[in-house]
Design brief:
The chain is α/β, with parallel strands linked by helices. Helices cover 29% and strands 21% of the residues. The protein has 15 helices and 17 strands.
Length: 455
């Protein structure tokens, strides 16, 4: 007996039932978005010439463990789908096909010239450019008797073109979806380089004769709308709650307006001030390096060294912060004298800037610090992403700050991140925290994990 596959009641079912030419399903993480996208082609899997292409921005994202290709097997094999691994394509007994593709570069769209794609799908639409999306609409055509249509999933991104495209469905103040507009259709036509919208297709036909309108809808979803995932992984919600403010609002609340701003990533109230650290801390000091002396006419970055400890119960302690402005030779002397004062039990972390000059500087400083445990590593990701794991632990109450002459300036600097003129304290704090994660004892594996899963 062939298995019966049904959407979960609520937003997933609304998305799959939508008659829109373009339906976008998105918002919070864990709403069952990718599974909805994989289910959609199955309604036409009995039609010989029906073709679906499901795009991710890169091929690696398609093939990641637990990604679209792996998840598709759970649905397509029981229905007779045969996999062509080399081409990342499924073929059903009728001849219908589902293919997975990528648009890694802007010009990759031209690889699809001449293609006829009955169902065009985008997983994580904000990862694609506006130009890529609208070019691929020209490939959305069909000779199999099914009207060509487009389906897409997405998480919120206030700075993406998608935010503007679906703005009618989003509250301009809160950034949250307007419940009564979920699944409602609107129509647009392109007039030159702008889109003209209307609530009624006939209205557009009168205003712009000869331009056939396309219907669009947006269906919001959050983790609460996917009981299958909540049941299979009850700790997943805790992972989302532990994210920094901006990512938590995007991925848990589905907020389309929130952006990084001062005060969202750190509050001093999150971190109790302590008079003395506990005994037995494992200690590191991480340096964010600068090498320009202060004059009357400049405002250079600081060299900042954050000394951080970790206790045996998951707590982190800021026990000292060194802040200095000086030339390269003076900075080198500060590193050496601080290392001597800290002692050889304190592991030292240094950034390694990209390029040969960065490698050479890191190698030189490591040699100068011979006799100490020193790690120089390239920094990956933007500053906000790197600060996120430390921010999450601070919000959870797992970071304490030793009271000292430096503590007020340090806390003020973190509260101003990322809008303040200098982010050296934040960079040094996140670097120190991430040194501990390199030891395998961290709590940040969830950050950046594939967030959509349905069982």
């Amino acid at each position: 007996m062939m298995p019966v596959l049904e959407p979960q009641p609520g937003p997933q079912e609304m998305f799959l039932k939508s008659p829109a030419d373009i339906a976008i399903y998105g918002g919070g993480a864990g709403g069952g978005k990718s599974w909805a996208l994989l289910l959609e082609p199955l309604r036409h899997s009995d039609k010989a010439e029906f073709t679906t292409v499901i795009f991710r921005r890169t091929l690696t994202q398609v093939k990641n463990p637990g990604g679209l290709w792996d998840e598709s097997a759970k649905l397509y094999v029981p229905l007779g789908g045969k996999a062509r691994t080399q081409g990342l394509e499924w073929q059903f007994p009728s001849g219908a096909r589902v293919r997975f593709g990528h648009l890694e570069h802007e010009r990759t769209v031209f690889d699809w010239q001449g293609a006829q794609i009955s169902l065009l799908c985008f997983d994580e639409l904000t990862h694609f450019s506006r130009a890529q999306f609208f070019y691929m609409l020209s490939r959305n055509r069909s000779l199999c008797g099914v009207r060509p249509y487009v389906r897409a999933t997405t998480n919120p991104d206030a700075d993406s073109w998608v935010a503007g495209f679906i703005s009618w469905w989003i509250d301009a103040e809160s950034g949250l979806p307007i419940p009564e507009r979920a699944g409602r259709l609107r129509w647009f036509v392109r007039v030159g380089d702008r889109l003209e919208w209307a609530d009624d297709a006939d209205d557009l036909a009168v205003r712009h004769p000869g331009l056939p309108p396309k219907s669009v809808t947006f269906v919001p979803a959050r983790l609460e709308d996917n009981p299958a995932l909540s049941s299979a992984d009850p700790g997943y919600r805790a992972n989302l709650l532990a994210l920094p403010t901006v990512e938590r609002e995007r991925l848990l609340a589905g907020n389309w307006k929130i952006r990084p701003a001062a005060g969202l990533y750190f509050h001093r109230a999150w971190c109790p001030l302590a008079e003395a650290p506990p005994v037995g801390l494992k200690l590191v000091r991480y340096w964010d390096l600068a090498a320009t002396a202060k004059t009357e006419s400049n405002d250079p970055d600081w060299t900042v060294g954050v000394k951080m400890g970790r206790d045996g119960v998951g707590g982190y302690w800021i026990v000292d912060v060194q802040r200095f402005r000086g030339n390269p030779g003076e900075v080198e002397q500060l590193l050496l004298s601080t290392a001597a004062a800290d002692g050889k039990a304190v592991r030292i972390g240094l950034p390694q800037d990209p390029g040969q000059a960065g490698k050479a500087q890191a190698a030189y400083l490591v040699r100068q610090l011979a006799g100490y445990s020193v790690t120089a590593t390239p920094e990956s990701g933007d500053k906000i992403t790197r600060f996120g794991p430390f921010s999450a632990q601070a919000r959870a109450g797992n970071v304490s700050v030793l009271r000292g002459s430096w503590s007020e300036e340090f806390l003020s600097s973190l509260e101003g991140f990322p809008e303040a003129a200098h982010d050296d304290d934040a960079d040094a704090a996140s670097g120190a925290f991430n040194l501990f994660q390199q030891d395998g004892g961290g709590l940040i594996d969830f950050y950046g994990r594939a967030l959509i899963q349905q069982t």
